[in-house]
Structure prediction request, 182 residues.
Amino acid sequence: MDIHIFWDHRAPQGLAGPVGRAVASITNTRVRVSDNPIVLNGYIGHRRQVDAGIVLDSLGTCVHRQCIQCPVLLVIGQDLFATGLEFVFGLARPQTQVSVVSSIRLSNEYYGRHPDDDDLIERLAKEGSHELGHIYGLSHCNNHECIMYNPHTLDELDGKKKEFCPVCRVALENGKSALLPC
Ligand SMILES: [Zn+2]
Ligand SMILES: [Zn+2]
Prediction:
């Protein structure tokens, strides 16, 4: 039961490998990383944001056509929003096993802080693993240190550990075994 990570050309380059390895460690799953094969639709000019729902539509169609049965995480560099929300770090659609995260609000630069690739790698791995957790059937967790905690700020995100809490870890392994092999 592998995970596919698609890395968009506008996401920070050189980080795909480290993020892939960190996601593999957090989720205890093999990860394959490749270039993003889809055109990013859903850019809304006046918001300067991409509609995460439209991205997941395109991604769902792509994985269906390519007969990919593994969970997929797309990493992009543009800001994301979802209906009714000012922004989202990421979004998952468990029905089609696809998810997306944006690097932009995970970078120190966005908040006027000093750039640091290690910070960005860690945050992308945490948020990517969080969205993959949704694909495996997990809901949000009240434990502030758990990957499935829903952070509203960068500091809350940084307060999470790079692991699922014991309850979510059991749910994750159950969710993995419930999906078809791929
Ligand atoms: Zn969530
Ligand atoms: Zn948890």
